[in-house]
Specification:
heterodimer, A: 236 residues, Four Helix Bundle (Hemerythrin (Met), subunit A), B: 107 residues, mainly alpha, 4 helices, 71% helix
Chain lengths: 236, 107
């Protein structure tokens, strides 16, 4: 195997690299910060959790003999007397995608060591996230006011309520936790923790701008889950 | 290069993907707005969903630039969920049939 100037073995591309990485008797994920690899594995487990929710929703929706409420009407809003289907959900979708866009750019500016722009972009991401949660709270209170409960609702199959509150509630919880951590990361970027390599309070290991990317992975995942919820729960 | 752990790409890449995600979200919203039904509706929803998910994972989450060791470790296990989908579709068919046979007006 070829050796580089640093003495490390050169990494091979493709399937040979895949086999080589896993059989290297060292860390399997080369060129990846450990925090990023761990975040990916956490996200994999979270994927299974959300899959179980969506699958249970699929099962109750297919097995009920009572008609399923039409989400297009249930989540519609009337604007100036005109019923617009799914309006709030569409706005929430665009807001969450925008937050993903600003997060991706924050990661990029972080690696460029541009503290100011990175901080502003992360704060903007947190603001989008918080407004998303706010709209979800509005959606919840509107539905609760209309009589939707986890065990019954006036529109059709009673399983609708439990699936709705469980899936959107768990997703909203993820967004809320994400906003809190975005604010923490923004503060660290602003103070210059990642320039000095200050030690974090969870791991007491030296932090760098990879933290922003790891945070970004979590945030993009929240957006990713919403893509599936939007498709299966709201549009189907 | 061997110790390079960061991801650096031009900002325009992200702006492009952001724009594309907006376009495809708008398309999937239009599926509902135009009130398409049946196979057309479901296939359009699934197509737009997969495109959006792919763009987010590949570009925003940088999976396109990772090594195969990480890509396979993360992206292959969720494929097994499809087996679960098949199992639960049999299960819900059976439940639906039982309810139809024994509790015609139940939930």
């Amino acid at each position: 195997m070829a050796k580089t100037a640093t003495g490390a073995k050169a990494l091979q591309p493709g399937m040979a690299g895949f086999a080589g990485d896993w059989s290297s008797d060292q860390r399997a994920f080369k060129n990846v910060h450990w925090g990023k690899a761990m975040m990916w594995i956490f996200l994999l487990s979270d994927t299974f959790i959300f899959s179980c929710f969506l699958l249970s929703y699929m099962t109750v929706r297919w097995s009920t003999t009572v008609p399923w409420p039409n989400p297009s009407e249930v989540f519609g809003l009337s604007v100036g007397g005109v019923e617009v289907p799914l309006l709030l959900i569409a706005i929430m979708t665009f807001i969450l995608i925008s937050s993903s866009g600003t997060m991706a750019m924050a990661v990029n500016y972080g690696y460029r060591k541009n503290r100011k722009v990175t901080t502003y972009l992360i704060l903007l991401t947190a603001l989008f996230g918080a407004s998303f949660v706010g709209m979800q709270a509005f959606e919840w209170s509107k539905l609760i006011h209309e009589g939707v409960r986890p065990w019954s609702n006036p529109f059709g199959a009673p399983q609708f309520g439990s699936a709705f509150f469980m899936i959107t509630g768990f997703h909203g919880f993820h967004v809320s936790i994400g906003v809190i951590f975005l604010l923490i990361v923004a503060r660290k970027v602003w103070r210059g923790d990642y320039d000095r390599g200050d030690r974090g309070y969870f791991t007491t290991m030296k932090g760098g701008y990879e933290h922003v990317e790891t945070m970004g992975l979590y945030w993009h995942f929240v957006d990713l889950v919403w893509v599936f919820i939007f498709a299966f729960f709201y549009l189907w | 290069m061997a110790h390079e752990e960061g991801q650096t790409h031009p900002i325009s890449t992200y702006l492009w993907i952001w724009g594309l995600l907006f376009v495809f979200s708008f398309f999937s919203y239009m599926v509902d707005y135009m009130a398409y039904q049946g196979i057309l509706r479901w296939s359009l929803i699934l197509i737009f969903m997969m495109i959006k998910a792919g763009l987010i994972v590949a570009i925003f989450m940088h999976m396109a630039w990772e090594r195969l060791a990480l890509i396979y470790a993360i992206l292959l296990p969720p494929v097994l969920i499809l087996v679960f989908v098949v199992l639960m579709s049999f299960e819900s068919d059976y439940t639906f049939a039982s309810r139809g046979a024994y509790f015609a007006f139940g939930s």
